[in-house]
Amino acid sequence: MSRRRTLALPSWLPVDAYILALIGTVVLAALLPARGVAADVAGGASTGAVALLFFLYGARLSTAEALDGLKHWRLHLTVLACTFVIFPLLGLASGGLVPYVLTPELQAGFLFLCLVPSTIQSSIAFTSIARGNVPAAICAGSFSSLTGILLTPLLAALLLGSTGGGFSADSLLKIVLQLLVPFLAGQFLRRWVGGFLTRHKKVLGLVDRGSILLVVYTAFSEGMVAGIWHQVTPARLGGLLAAEAVLLAVMLALTWYGARRLGFGREDRIAIQFAGSKKSLAAGLPMASVLFGAHASLAVLPLMLFHQMQLMVCAVIAKRRSRDPEPEPEPEPESESARNREDAGSGPVSDPAVTVTS
Fold first, then answer.
1. Of 13, 112, 148, 292, which sits most exposed with the smallest number of CB within 10 A?
2. Integer Cα distance of 150 and 173 in angstroms
3. Are 12 and 311 within 8 A, CB to CB?
4. Segment 65-89 mean pLDDT
């Protein structure tokens, strides 16, 4: 039995079928990019797929569970602060790497990576493996995704400006129509379609991933047609990987040791570390396709690389945390009635034959 459990853990390491599909999609876009009418068809299909994706997000997110999770508000505020305050500040600091390590376009993608919400599925999975607070990870990831639908475009408008591929009020309107409106429609229709989605979870998972693959193909095709890939030399790619490794290491350390300084227990610290240090590829790719247009391929490259890196590193951390010794249960506080009985027992011994009546 233990052997099976040991063999199952490496499934979180690092290259799964979906990652291979993403790589294959990028290669396909490089060899056979969509052009002309095919590009228009792919763009329209990508827009519809993104709307469907966020409709499904809204329909599957339980509003009642999310509201119930607000009871652990300190943990959720900590994760949100990591995701939408500390990450963006580090992304802004990466401007010092231009032009020595990163090109302006790659730095814009690096900054966009820092604005994306946290993951849900992998944060929950790693928290579970490490024996952390799984309900807190579920709520923290859900809150981050919900907040990111509104906050990520606003932060992109504020911090990226014109570097975001011509970012404008029209881009914000596209975000609202393509992402927020379908999400709210999914929330509204959840009472009628939620059961169906639960029963067909595996099929809808394929729809999710297929939608993202279509977005990746469209974005990288536009990049190939526009001829912007000559900017990514092996040296620039190596610099990007090094910068992302430092970013991930800093956030993993901050979420773990910072949560301890804030007084969180071990299980909560695990949830904070995995939810507060990770970024969602599923949420970031559709947003980038809307915000960056033809430059989306360079914008999503840092996110795709960071996504793979965080899976590899967090898998190792989760397995190490799972081997931590079980914490000793804290003694329950003694009740006042128990103390009174103890005090009474330490006094003069009464005659057992005497019966006291009121």
1. 13
2. 11
3. yes
4. 85
- CA–CA dist 300, 223 (Å, integer): 11
Contact residues for 259 (Cβ-Cβ < 8 A; gap 6+): 78, 268, 269, 272, 273
Is 297:228 a contact under the CB 8 Å cutoff?
yes
| Structure token pair of residue 266 | 């071990």
- For residues 102 and 265, the answer to whether their CB atoms sit within 8 Å is no
- Name the amino acid, one letter, at 302: P
CA distances (Å), 71 to each of 58, 65, 76, 306, in order? 22, 11, 9, 31
CB 159 within 8 Å of CB 88 = yes
Give the whole-angstrom CA distance, residue 101 versus residue 188: 46
Q: Cis omega before residue 234 (within 30°)?
A: no
Over residues 276-335, the pLDDT tens digits come to 999 988 788 878 877 776 667 778 889 988 988 898 899 889 988 888 876 655 454 454
d(C-alpha 283, C-alpha 156), whole Å? 14
Residue 88 to residues 15, 80, 171, 172, 203, Cα–Cα distance (Å): 28, 12, 20, 19, 35
Q: pLDDT tens for residues 18-40?
A: 778 878 888 898 888 888 888 88
Helices and strands, counts by H and E, the chain: 18, 0
Query: Among all chains, which residue has been given the structure tokens 């128990």?
Result: 338
Q: What is the pTM of this model?
A: 0.74
